[in-house]
Amino acid sequence: MTRVLALATSKGGTGKTTIAVALLDWWRRAGQALAVLDTDPNQSITRWLGKSSVFADVTVRPCTQEHEIVPMVRDLAASVDTVIIDTAGFSNQAMIFAVGVSDLVLTPVLSDEASLYEAVRMHQVVKSAADLTGRTIAFRTLVNRSRRTLVERHMAKQLEALGLNPLKARVSDRAAFQEASYHGLSPAGLMMGGKAWDDVRRVARELDKVLLDAHRN
Questions:
Q1: Which of 22, 29, 159, 193 is packed most tightly, with the most Cβ within 10 A?
Q2: Fold for domain 3-211?
Q3: Which bin fits 13, alpha (ψ -120 to 50), beta or left (φ > 0)?
Q4: Please, which residues have CB within 8 angstroms of residue 136's CB and are 6 or more apart in sequence?
Q5: pLDDT tens digits, one per residue of 29-80
Q6: Domain boundaries, the chain
Q7: What angle do helix axes 175-183 and 16-29 make, rounded to 10 degrees?
Q8: Which stretch of DSSP H or E encloses residue 184?
Q9: In what order do the strands lie in the sheet with 82-86?
Q10: Considering the entire predicted model, what is its pTM?
């Protein structure tokens, strides 16, 4: 069965698009057929993937009309292994539809109070969408731009205490994740075999297990 993963949060600047591209690169190297639905009006991931031929084998569909999201996901799912939905960095109707059609919603968080607050809100959106659709929708948070500080450790404990399901894997604050968008490349692709690649590998493998469990349920 095709897996549908949405990167979603109502807070901008948390690295949703960067994480989406990194996961695309990992899974395509693993031999998966992939598609991206870009529901962000800024079309960030569409522009990123269009800058080089590296992701030529990935189907990319811009979609800013919320009522087209569900049929477009179903259409894409007919021919690929995984659909990744990149959402806008603010709450809108499109995000609700994207969440409702997903198997898993991943919310990147930074080590600040605003990210924690938005993660709580996003979790509630996912629970409401699951109740509305009668589906099980998994939810996970991912600590992004990790620096392993005391503040970050406190943040991780708060994510656990609030039931926000943080991944064990984290994405560190590395230059490769900032530079990749300029070249249309994967963050890990700039440092193949390096620490950025290790970060992506750990996140992707953990998500593989969550998605497998989501389909079993």
A1: 22
A2: Rossmann fold (3.40.50)
A3: left
A4: 130, 214, 217
A5: 999 999 999 999 999 999 999 998 989 999 999 998 999 999 999 999 999 9
A6: 3-211
A7: 80
A8: none
A9: 59-62, 34-38, 82-86, 3-7, 104-109, 138-143
A10: 0.94
